[in-house]
Design a protein that fits this description.
Structural class: mainly beta
Mean pLDDT: 88
Number of domains: 1
Shape: elongated
Largest sheet: 14 strands, antiparallel, barrel
Distance between the termini: 24 Å
Order of helices and strands: HEHEEEEEEEEEEEEEEEEEE
Strand order of the largest sheet: 2-3-4-5-6-7-8-11-12-15-16-17-18-19
Radius of gyration: 24 Å
CATH topology: Porin
Number of strands: 19
Strand content: over 45%
Low-confidence stretches: 1-17
CATH superfamily: Outer membrane protein transport protein (OMPP1/FadL/TodX)
Oligomer: single chain
Length: 422
């Protein structure tokens, strides 16, 4: 009963939580925002490895084939907080945000199939950037203020099937949707009126993913695992309205609109190419595992007036190398609680797929985590901590040092059990 109350409460607050500001990164200026990690807290705590995970009572989102191994109905809910330190080479700032990352349910079917569905954060926009020009006497003569907010979410449904010969296959369908707002405010010394450009857009589209996972038993109860998943190429549509209007300059920065100079609608396409994840791992069932994932994708292509790219940035091929694992001393221990705790760690290196000022943006980090059992049940409280760095201060760019704390609840139950009569 307590579990049901928790789950219903989570669903009620999720609609509100997903609409809040979830990002303060300058890199969310590009495209449709800063991509979220479409992975569970457990996967992220292992350096984002998840292509070979197929737990009986936990969800992993990298490979939909894993759903075929579910034996327990599983409710998962995740939230996170992020502390971000930004350095442009001369100034440093910091900010903090909190967000709801995902809510999902996994349901086993007939012992060899599984169905999972839920809502996940997909991309997030949240930035406030200034560009200033000074004359020879260090007097400000022109300023531009860039701001953005919003982002996209995804609802998904995945299905997995487990064959008798240690092969899992799976498929997932998702619908991405959201709204994004951008603004550029220009002010000049000696000019009575400033100028502001505003765009409000809606983003939507479908995506599909296929997955396969194979395990092979070798000596001493060891298992070799190989996984592959492919998110098929898909298009997103971004449509909305753009305004340019003049405004009265005020000393306190208050915006007082005066005349509309331009009002027009736009319709753009975001072409996302095939994204592939190849995975391999070795370990003992419910004891330990070490794995490596390699993710790669061609450059994303934006078409349409709203995404006319300036010459100082463009999109490139992206890749991600993830290495990590977990260790559980003794999952069925009765005498020691800490023997039933699962410990996780990992490392990741990411070529983001974005080049700014002739510099490829890179992101690398380390992560740690634990899964704390709730009593003598399979349900867990999962904690994860991530330390990373993105970008550089070279070539007039921005370097971010970030610290992410993640929390998730994984609640398990048995559905459709036959009542026993004694």
């Amino acid at each position: 009963m307590i579990k049901k109350i928790i789950v219903y409460s989570i669903w009620i607050i999720s609609a509100y939580s997903f609409a809040q500001t979830t990002n303060t990164s300058p890199y969310s200026f590009f495209g449709i925002g800063d991509p979220a990690k479409i992975k569970s807290v457990e996967e992220i705590a292992m350096g984002q490895t998840g292509g070979t995970l197929n737990s009986e009572y936990q969800l992993s989102f990298t490979n939909p084939a894993s759903y075929g191994s579910l034996l327990w109905t599983t409710y998962v809910f995740s939230a996170s907080s992020k502390l971000n330190y930004v350095d442009d080479g001369s100034n440093k700032q910091n900010s903090a945000t909190a967000s709801l990352n995902y809510i999902a349910i996994g349901i086993p079917i007939n012992g060899n199939q599984g169905l999972a569905f839920g809502l996940q954060l997909n991309t997030a926009v949240g930035y406030s950037l200034f560009s200033r020009q000074f004359d020879s006497e260090n007097i400000l003569i022109e300023s531009d203020h860039y701001t953005g907010s919003g982002g996209t979410n995804r609802v998904f449904m995945g299905y997995g099937y487990k064959f008798p010969f240690n092969l899992n296959l799976g498929v997932e369908a998702a619908y991405q949707f959201g709204g994004i707002d951008h603004s550029i405010l220009n002010r000049r010394l000696g000019v009575q009126l400033g100028t502001r450009q505003v765009s409000n857009s809606d983003v939507h589209g479908f995506s599909y993913k296929l997955g396969a996972l194979y395990s092979k038993d070798i000596k001493n109860d060891l298992q070799l695992k190989f996984g592959a998943s492919a998110q098929l190429a898909y298009d997103l549509t971004e449509e909305g309205e753009e305004y340019i209007y003049s405004l009265i300059n005020t000393g306190d920065g208050t915006i007082i609109p005066r005349d509309t100079l331009l009002a027009q609608s736009f319709n753009s396409k975001i072409k996302t190419p095939l994204k592939t994840v190849l995975s391999a791992g070795i370990g003992k069932l419910n004891k330990w595992q070490v794995a490596i994932d390699y993710t790669f994708q061609d450059a994303i292509d934006f078409t349409g007036d709203i995404h006319n790219q300036p010459t100082n940035y463009y999109y490139t091929k992206s890749s991600l190398i993830s290495i990590g694992g977990f260790y559980t001393p003794r999952i069925n221990s009765i005498s020691s609680y800490w023997d039933r705790v699962t410990y996780r760690a990992g490392f990741s290196y990411n070529q983001v797929g974005l080049n700014v000022n002739n510099t490829d943006i890179k992101d690398y980090g380390m992560s740690f985590g634990v899964s704390l059992p709730m009593g003598l049940q399979l349900s867990n409280v999962n904690l994860g901590f991530e330390i990373g760095q993105r970008g550089t201060t070279k070539n007039n760019l921005i370097k971010e040092n970030y610290y992410n704390f993640r929390l998730s609840l994984s609640l398990n139950d048995k559905w459709f059990r036959k009542q026993k009569i004694y």
